[in-house]
Amino acid sequence: MWIRSTMTYRFSFAMTLLSNFTATLFDFVVILLMFAHVRGLGGFSFAEVAFLYGTTSTAFGLADLAMGQTVRLGKRVRDGTLDTLLVRPVPVLAQVAADRFALRRLGRVTQGLVVLVWSLVLLDAVAWTPLKAVLVPLMVVTGALIFGSLMVAGAAFQFWAQDGAEVTNSFTYGGNNLLQYPPSIFAGELVKGVVYVVPLAFVNWVPALYVLGRDAPAGLPAWSAFASPLVAAGFVGLAGLAWRVGIRSYRSTGS
């Protein structure tokens, strides 16, 4: 319904799509400006940083497109309009994700994908193998699942917090911004936190460093580059559990 509504005004949709593409492009412009003055960043070349940027941005864009609307759940909990979703014969999570579905977010996905393809063209020093080639689309898919799971878990948190969207954004938008840069420029404690505490590093750092022929971060073994699907499955399972607990604890507004 929301897609049909959006496409009714095609020129308006095209302009919002272009605006979304341009707004997210400025994140990459910062990297371009940086490399206009330096040859490397933390020992990584421009092509390698662009590869990190492209993988996490595409993964986050897909998650934001599918589950980004879950951030609105807190408002529904506060005003009691979530009740209308509970009586419909459709899963509540699907309704929350589809509420005011923003097709314009394809701009972020497109922008990240363009940078990713460009970086693959520039990575002439990588010794490509079939395994490395498979890892590239795999990390985008698993990264999207990890980010999407964080969004669902954040939505579940709002059943109690009712206005905790910024907490979720610190892990999703903040995590995306963090993973756009090489781990070598961050403090060791922060890298360990992203690897072992909230393992966002499996979105792209861990598999991407294997593709680039570099050591895994925070002392992880080499085989950890292939653990992203398992980590994503764990995120999905925990997010599903959190959502079920949140739904069962919902007591409407009490009015």
From TrEMBL:
The keyword Ligase does not apply. The chain crosses the membrane at residues 12-38, 50-68, 109-128, 134-157, 190-210, 222-243. The keyword Transmembrane applies. It holds the Pfam family ABC2_membrane_6. Keywords: Membrane, Transmembrane, Transmembrane helix. This is ABC transporter permease. The lineage of its organism: Bacteria, Bacillati, Actinomycetota, Actinomycetes, Kitasatosporales. It comes from Streptomyces coeruleoprunus. InterPro entries: ABC-2_transporter-like (IPR010390). PANTHER family: INTEGRAL MEMBRANE TRANSPORT PROTEIN, SLR0610 PROTEIN-RELATED.
